[in-house]
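Students often ask why we bother encoding 3D structure as a string. The short answer is that it lets us treat folding as translation between two languages. Here is a chain of 243 residues written in the first language.
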Amino acid sequence: MSGHSKFANIKHKKEKNDAAKGKIFTKLGKELAVAVKEGGSADPANNSRLRDVIAKAKANNMPNDTIERNIKRADSDANAANYEYITYEGYGPNGTAIIVETLTDNKNRTASNVKNAFTKGGGNVGTPGCVSFMFDKKGQIIIDKEEYEGDADELMMQALDAGAEDFAEEEDSFEILTSPDDFSSVRMALEEAGLPMASAEVTMIPQTYVALTDEKDIASIQKTLDMLDDDDDVQNVYHNWEE
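And here it is in the second language, the structure alphabet:
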């Protein structure tokens, strides 16, 4: 979720090596398990949250059989670990804002790891709400121009008719924004229309971005982001660094 290069980051993530993909699939597996448990059903037709996580998993190239295996395991294992969502907020170099969403079965371990990632990058964890006001929570759907054969105006009308709030055309992609509450219905409508989605998720979008020019600051924030990315408890990281 970096600067204005959201689509570039999506492509980079999809091109990662097998080890990195395995880590992404592990995190998605946890989200699927929680969605089954909290949504009360392993049937996506009866569990809108599970439908959204499945869409996110597919956008990350998670194979269908892997998705189904994770859902079945979560549905059949009554003794599965109890995960809870915990969000951390803090600052990186030059006042950059960072939000970290975690899904953990050990709060002490996660808190220690997140704090360590901020500290190693010269930043610090703040109090809840210290930076989240700088972001807007939105449903975001990204469509790769190379995958879409239609007209931009046609796509915009489809999105708005489905309930989207906003539509933007970038150099290599289209961005569709929704309210968090409308995300699931908009995504389903566009999916049923056969539109290819490079990404589909509820995310935190910065209201403004911070440019870093000092090489030390850039190396520091990259260290924090890399450490968070490597942490199995960390599900999502949002920041306002304009790369």
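Translate back mentally: The longest helix spans residues 18-39. Keep this in mind for the problem set.
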